[in-house]
Amino acid sequence: MTTCVACLGDSLTRAQLSVDYLDLLERRPPGDVRLARFGVNGDFAHSLLRRLDAVVADPPEVITVLIGTNDARASLAGYPVEQVMQRKRLPERPSAGWFQQCLGAVVARLRAETDARIGLLSLPVLGQQLDGPAARASLAYSRLIAEVAAAEKVACLPLHERQTEELRRADAPPVAYREATPAAGVGVLLQRAVLRRGLDTISRRRGLLFTTDHIHQNSRGAARIAEVIDTGLLTRGG
After folding, report:
1. Average pLDDT, integer, range 162-167
2. Which of 46, 114, 153, 199 could form a Cys-Cys staple with 59, CB 3.0–4.6 A?
């Protein structure tokens, strides 16, 4: 029997600059999932809240939510908050409290208007310095996600925890975090199109275990996303 899974999120789910975890999910045995993609580049929790109509119009059996990376990035020095607020039409400055409020509203609506099993993923680790500001921000926002999941009685899928453990085991080099820019994204696309470099090759050249640019996922990072979804919601049936 085919299970319909709706994957909600930002650029990691859109998968233009990341390896596609939906593709990996679709390949996992027994191969009986039908996937619907609801990913928009640069989205915040508030952005996701505004576009739920398409999700609830055709309710799936399983819903995954991977959102918050951009909310967490907005708390870091050097992030272009004002420009992003204009581009994404955010009604207020991003903050931890607003993120948690918006994510809670997302889950509340999904619970009210669907019968789906819902899983919130903690965030991928930002950067590769676990004691650095970026990684600490992704941890702090992951804890807020866990609080929302507990309050709304939905699953919390431990992506951040899995990646943190693996970074420690691998003794990954502490490459300093650099905020991704639109120019950097174009650079990655040019490396792929002109130099024919895959995302994993770009990662290796930069000494990064899970990402190409501290944010977007390579094959290893995308595989961890697919694994926590499969284990937490599909294999065990929630």
Report:
1. 96
2. 114
What DSSP string describes 38-87? EE-TT--HHHHHHT-HHHHHS--SEEEEE--HHHHHTTSTT--HHHHHHH
3-state SS, residue 91: coil
The 8 Å CB, 24+ separation contacts for 23-30 are 24/222, 24/223, 24/225, 24/226, 25/226, 25/229, 25/230, 25/234, 28/226, 28/230, 28/234
Measured in whole angstroms, the distance separating CA 37 from the mean position of its chain's CA atoms is 13
Give yes or no for a contact between 13 and 66, defined as CB atoms under 8 angstroms apart.
yes
Q: How far apart are CA 140 and CA 7, in angstroms?
A: 23
SS3 129: coil
pLDDT at 102: 98
Q: Which residues contact 212 (CB under 8 A, 6 or more apart)?
A: 17, 18, 188, 199, 202, 203, 206, 218
- Residue that is written with structure tokens 């702090």 in the block: 140
Both tokens of 67, joined, read 């959102």
Q: Among 92-101, 107-116, 187-196, 223-232, name the one with the lowest average pLDDT.
A: 187-196
Confidence class for position 203, pLDDT limits 50, 70, 90? confident
